Amino acid sequence: DSGVTQTPKHLITATGQRVTLRCSPRSGDLSVYWYQQSLDQGLQFLIQYYNGEERAKGNILERFSAQQFPDLHSELNLSSLELGDSALYFCASSVAPDLGNTIYFGEGSWLTVV
Amino acid sequence: DAKTTQPPSMDCAEGRAANLPCNHSTISGNEYVYWYRQIHSQGPQYIIHGLKNNETNEMASLIITEDRKSSTLILPHATLRDTAVYYCIVTNNDMRFGAGTRLTVKP
């Protein structure tokens, strides 16, 4: 158990809908990362937050947005869902985005768009 | 741009050492080398990381060449449970994963 908690574990929704994935980082971690992994695809970095502020942005679509709240939990919002958005979404956290800090991953949220 | 190059797949006999190579010829002075693995569709698991010196922990050893342009992850006694995709990442902040090496440990 990495200490990173993601909910829900599984989610099935229809095209065009909107969903929110939630992440609670490890106790004491200030930085949160989001990744997408499609079937048989690699891990794609989406976005990173540090202490509530966006720190780095990767291949995140405009239909997707994220935020980190004052209690440090984070949410990834996916809207106007398409079939291709079906994937495993991982959250990870680290103490800080500084050099040498290890990031730890949650077990992911499976999203199926039908 | 890919910062690392890893073989797409490798096999290893159970009980033998698994040596996974990684090339990172464009590594910068402040970038670390990290190794993670992903077993099936579980969350990636941290293995080890280093900057310049060789490192060892309870899971593995990391050997970094003197010029830091390549490294090797060593699993000293591979078991069937070590079958996974292993990712080598060079970073000074965000973790961006490549395709990794699919290691299959065979009985």
How would you describe what is shown here?
The complex is a heterodimer of chains A (114) and B (107). Chain A has strands spanning 5-7, 10-13, 19-24, 31-37, 43-50, 53-57, 64-68, 74-78, 87-94, 104-105, 109-113. Helices cover 0% and strands 51% of the residues of chain A. In chain A, strands 2, 4, 5, 6, 9, 10 and 11 form a 7-stranded mixed sheet that branches. In chain A, strands 1-3-8-7 form a 4-stranded antiparallel sheet, with no helix packed on it. Chain A is mostly beta strands and 114 residues long. Chain B has strands at 9-13, 18-23, 32-38, 45-50, 55-56, 61-64, 70-75, 84-91, 101-106. With 107 residues, chain B is an all-beta fold. Chain B has no helices and 9 strands. The model of chain B has no long low-confidence stretch (mean pLDDT 93). Chains A and B meet through strand 4, strand 5, strand 9 and strand 10 of A and strand 3 and strand 4 of B.
Q: Strand-and-helix sequence of chain A, N→C? A: EEEEEEEEEEE
How is the biggest beta sheet of chain A arranged? 7 strands, mixed
Tell me the number of strands of chain B.
9
User: Average pLDDT across residues of chain A?
Assistant: 93
Rg of chain B over CA atoms, rounded to whole Å, is 13 Å
Q: List SSEs of chain B in N-to-C order.
A: EEEEEEEEE
Low-pLDDT residue spans of chain A: none
Largest sheet of chain B: 5 strands, mixed
**Strand segment tally of chain A:** 11
Provide mean pLDDT of chain B, rounded: 93
Instruction: Specify the overall morphology of chain A.
Output: globular
With helices defined by DSSP (H or I, 4 residues minimum), what is the helix count of chain B? 0
Strand order in space, largest sheet of chain B: 1-9-8-3-4
